[in-house]
Amino acid sequence: MTGQATTEHLDGKGMPALPASARRLFASDREATVVTIDPDGAPQASLVWMALDRGSLVFGVEEHRRKVRNLRRDPRVTVIIHDNERTADGAADGLTQYLTVRGRATLLGPGIPDEFTALMDTLARRYLGTDVYPFGNRGSETGMIVRIAVERIGGVGPWVD
């Protein structure tokens, strides 16, 4: 199945909500590719650890990163997560499933070291199997949280109709 989400997947505010079939990707160690827009209009892609929090996608980032500059200028973002499962719907058997989410980002921080550390510790548990985020920017004053409001869901998999 390929395409975009329909009204069956709307949350209480009229925005697309991730169905359970897509939410499971955020309980796995599947990394996400975040695509922002450079000043010249070119796409800029980054691989990140990502979580689902109250219907929004969230990830941590340092303030000096290019994606932060891009999101401050233009909050539109696309997220892609490759699944480890393949389709078996009869129409496109064997395709690698992937989720695409288009949305708008809100930047929280800098100056939120406790919140940044809490998020990164949570992500480290999932991605590294350790209770504490082990890298040098733990507790960073320049750490930020990017929160993405889901606007459109697509890709190949059971999350599209």
From TrEMBL:
Q: Which GO terms describe its molecular function?
A: coenzyme F420 binding; oxidoreductase activity, acting on the CH-CH group of donors
Gene Ontology CC? cytosol
Q: Keywords for this entry? A: Oxidoreductase
Alphabetized Pfam families for the sequence? PNPOx_N
- Work out whether the entry's keyword set contains Oxidoreductase: yes
Specify the superkingdom: Bacteria
Establish whether keyword Acetylation is in the entry: no
Q: Where is the Pyridoxamine 5'-phosphate oxidase N-terminal domain?
A: 22-154
- This chain's protein is named Putative F420-dependent enzyme
Taxonomic source organism:
Candidatus Protofrankia datiscae
Taxonomic lineage of this organism? Bacteria, Bacillati, Actinomycetota, Actinomycetes, Frankiales
